[in-house]
Design brief:
The protein is an alpha/beta fold. The strands form two sheets. The chain has a seven-stranded mixed sheet, sandwiched between helices. Strands 6-7 form a two-stranded antiparallel sheet. The longest helix is centred in the middle third of the chain and has 14 residues, at about 125-135. Helix 1 crosses helix 4 (about 75-85). It is about 30% helix and about 30% strand. The chain has a single domain (about 5-205), classed as Rossmann fold (3-Layer(aba) Sandwich), CATH 3.40.50.150.
Length: about 210
């Protein structure tokens, strides 16, 4: 794990409550819809990469999904999520790891990522992300990915990001994944700012 990166994100979550970070959503409606469109089986194994203290895990449990893993580089973020869930946290597999060095020891039916890939501005980091992604998903499994769109911010949490349009994502993913759906969202942050997100859903084809 990158000590520098984990310190940065521990600092972000140490300074703010989970509902005050810019990407907070009380109900992650688009992520939930794309996941439910991807798999109907509530036994499907789902991994939320960079899930941090997101409320997605709460809503997945509410929807009846019973095999949920949340991975994040920040232990503090996962502590916030566990505290919020209380006893229900025992039903979730929590993994403190850097996705760039993550070695999956099982396969998942769905890989969900909202706002991780766009922080990986280095080509080698993106390549390591794709290695982890391919190691975690078998052919026919689903990827639900959202990044800042072409009109999104240039920086987030003090870090430079890479904005994406659909053609850029197809160039990165299209060799191994087939695009199923995509849409834009103007996300409103807790401070009232607007951020454009591009939501996409893919199926692994090889």
């Amino acid at each position: 794990m990158s000590t520098e990166a984990s310190r940065h994100w521990d600092g972000v979550y140490g300074a703010r409550a989970f509902d005050q970070v810019s990407w907070y959503q009380p109900v992650p409606e688009r992520s939930l819809r794309h996941i439910e469109d991807a798999v109907a089986n509530r036994d499907a194994a789902i991994i939320d990469v960079g899930g941090g203290a997101s409320t997605l895990v709460d809503h997945l449990l509410d929807a009846g999904f019973n095999d949920v893993t949340v991975l994040d580089i920040s232990g503090k973020a996962l502590q916030q999520a566990r505290h919020r869930l209380g006893a229900r946290a025992e039903a979730v597999n929590w993994v403190v790891a850097d996705v760039r060095t993550f070695l999956p020891d099982r396969e998942f039916s769905v890989w969900h990522d909202r706002a991780v890939l766009h922080f990986l501005i280095d080509a080698d980091d993106r390549a390591r992300y794709l290695e982890a992604l391919q190691g975690a998903l078998l052919p026919g499994a689903m990827l639900v990915l959202s990044t800042f769109g072409p009109e999104g911010p240039l920086k987030c949490s003090g870090l430079q990001i890479c904005r994406y349009d659909i053609d850029m994502l197809i160039k990165i993913l299209g060799k191994h994944f087939e695009l199923q759906d995509h849409e834009f969202e103007d996300h409103e942050t807790p401070t009232g700012a607007k951020q454009q997100f591009l939501y996409t859903r893919w199926v692994r084809k090889d």
